[in-house]
Design a protein that fits this description.
alpha+beta; 6-stranded antiparallel barrel; 4-stranded antiparallel sheet; 5 helices; 21 strands; disordered C terminus
Amino acid sequence: MTEQRHSALAIHPIAVEEGEGELLRRRQIVRRTRWLVLVVLVLLALGAARTVFVRMANARALETGTTERARQYVQTALPRTPTAGQTLALPGTLQGFVQSPISARASGYLKRWTKDIGSRVEKGDLLAEIETPEIDQQLSQAVAARAQAASGLELARSTAERWEALRKKDVVSQQDLDERRSAVAQATSNVAAADANVQRLKQTEGFKRVVAPFAGVITRRNVDTGDLIDAGGGGGAGRALFVLAQTDPLRVYINVPQAYAQLVKAGQPVVVTQAELRGQTFKGEVARTAGAIDTTTRMMQVEVALPNKDGALLPGAYVQVSLPLAASRTLTVPSNALLFRAEGTRIAVVGAQGRINLRPVTLGRNYGENVEVIDGLESTDRMVLNPSDSLAEGDVVAVAPDAPPADAKAVPAGAAPAPKKEPA
């Protein structure tokens, strides 16, 4: 090796004349180089070991996280037994407690009317007067006929008395006396018939005054002065002069579906509202029920009595009747717990070891958010809320853990909150 090459390598060439001192320095440099290489190798080994350890730890964490995330969390709830009944809202029409057309019993011409629509009347108040010239003449004729019959009765009686005396002297036969007695009986009957006819016409004349049969409000007037009034002498009803309605209390008839008919009883309180009277409610009660289901509509008619002392409600108005029903002891479940499958309606119940059991159930009334379950479910069964369509019999699920109270949101009784999110 030349001196130039040693200079390029920063190694002084060893001269034979330098001796052992130079050799010692070279050995020291080689030793230091070896130690440096050894340190670098150790550092590389430690870095590789750390990398392997971190990768193994990450693999274990990934496996644990994947297993945890693969678990299917579900929200659950218990069936409920309702403590308060449902409120059933049904439409109805207000009617007067008593509502009747007032017709004339006597034919003639309307002389005058005294009450118009909207007038409040008491029982016996005069509504109208009718002129009845024909009935007046018939009454006069009946009175004269009665006087004629009474005169014939007097003659028959006096004749019979004379013949009674002659019979005692045996001047006349018994047959003649019996004929005179029969004439008296016949004359008596004629007088009675005449009296009855006079009384009939007098009563008919009494109907010239049309009076209110009960207290109420005139809701319609169909005649005016001078109108011809036909009382329907042929047995038919004539034209109604007035329509009278009793407005306190009022009646409301509602039709309750068959599914709720058994829950409606007389005396139940109801609340009536009218769209035009916002913010106002009127309390009434069930007066009576039909006690039978109409085969055509499958509904039961119910009558509601509604006080109306201030007259705020008007007959004929359309109203909504809120009917609180008695609480049913049948279990109810949320609608989002139902599974509709081809084999029928099912409810997913979490059993032992978190295994799913798909229970067939029989449903009752549908309340919207809740549905009655008549059969197939117990009060202690924990059912899955919002079950996925892929949920199958025997699947293992985990009930979502409870959230901390500070972050907890209101959930239905018996239901668990949503599962916590795994850290990324």
